[in-house]
Amino acid sequence: MHPHVEKILLEENQINERIQQLGQQITQDYQGKDILMVGILKGAMIFLADLVRNIEVPTFFDFMAVSSYGAGTVSSGVVRILKDLDKSIEGKHIIIVEDIVDTGLTLQYMVENIKSRGPASVKVCTLLDKPDRRKVEVPIDYNGFQIPDEFVVGFGLDYNERYRNLPYIAVLKPEIYQS
Ligand code: PRP
Ligand code: MN
Ligand code: MG
């Protein structure tokens, strides 16, 4: 275990098992269709990489980079586009992929932004859902895990850009968040 970690919330094998299930569910739901996954950088990249390898219909991906947190643990609520999609998504079946839905502000912005571009359909898939902190209601079609209101890192999630590479979801020691 990483020395800054206080406790592991979700072990690697639990996460992998759940991602397999989500992939199977998506495969069933999209029979006969192509999927365009839109990953929200940077947090969603690890989850997206694992998820797409568990989907058995033609799956394409593109990315948007948005940031609302900057440094620290609290959402600013202001979403900035740092990188836009490469191509038009008109007529495509989109699944927006997130690592976590917290206040919901990032996802609300993303869903509206994607819908305005004329896709055939839009669904949302997130690895983690922290419902206690929700400020705006957002529909989640595929949800990996509901988690309690604790600031978590790992599996793509960062604190000040660190810890994204941890293969599990964890809570850091309190002194790490203070420094
Ligand atoms: C985090 C996380 C989600 C978003 C969730 O991204 O990856 O995208 O915040 O928070 P919300 O529901 O309160 O909007 P962040 O802005 O930290 O960027 P990152 O993915 O590059 O870490
Ligand atoms: Mn993010
Ligand atoms: Mg972040």
Largest sheet: 6 strands, mixed
User: How far do the termini sit from each other?
Assistant: 20 Å
Unreliable stretches (pLDDT < 50, length at least 5) are: none
**What Rg do the Cα atoms give?**
16 Å
Order of helices and strands: EHEHEEEHEEEEH
Mean pLDDT: 94
Shape: globular
The total strand number stands at 9
Which range does the strand content fall in? 25-35%
Instruction: Please identify, by name, the CATH architecture.
Output: 3-Layer(aba) Sandwich
CATH domain class: Alpha Beta
Descriptive overview:
With 179 residues, the protein is of the alpha/beta class. The chain is built from four helices and nine strands; from the N terminus they run βαβαβββαββββα. It has helices at residues 12-29, 45-52, 105-115, 174-178, and strands spanning 5-10, 35-41, 59-67, 80-83, 93-101, 121-129, 142-146, 152-153, 169-172. The longest helix is centred in the first third of the chain and has 18 residues, at 12-29. The chain is globular, with a radius of gyration of 16 Å. The two termini are 20 Å apart. Bound molecules: 1-O-pyrophosphono-5-O-phosphono-alpha-D-ribofuranose, manganese (II) ion and magnesium ion (MG). The site of magnesium ion has 3 residues, from loops.
What is the fold's blueprint, element by element?
Elements: E1 5-10, H1 12-29, E2 35-41, H2 45-52, E3 59-67, E4 80-83, E5 93-101, H3 105-115, E6 121-129, E7 142-146, E8 152-153, E9 169-172, H4 174-178
Helix pairs in contact: 1-2
The structure holds 1-O-pyrophosphono-5-O-phosphono-alpha-D-ribofuranose, manganese (II) ion and magnesium ion.
Subcellular location: Cytoplasm
Main location: cytoplasm
Protein name: Hypoxanthine phosphoribosyltransferase
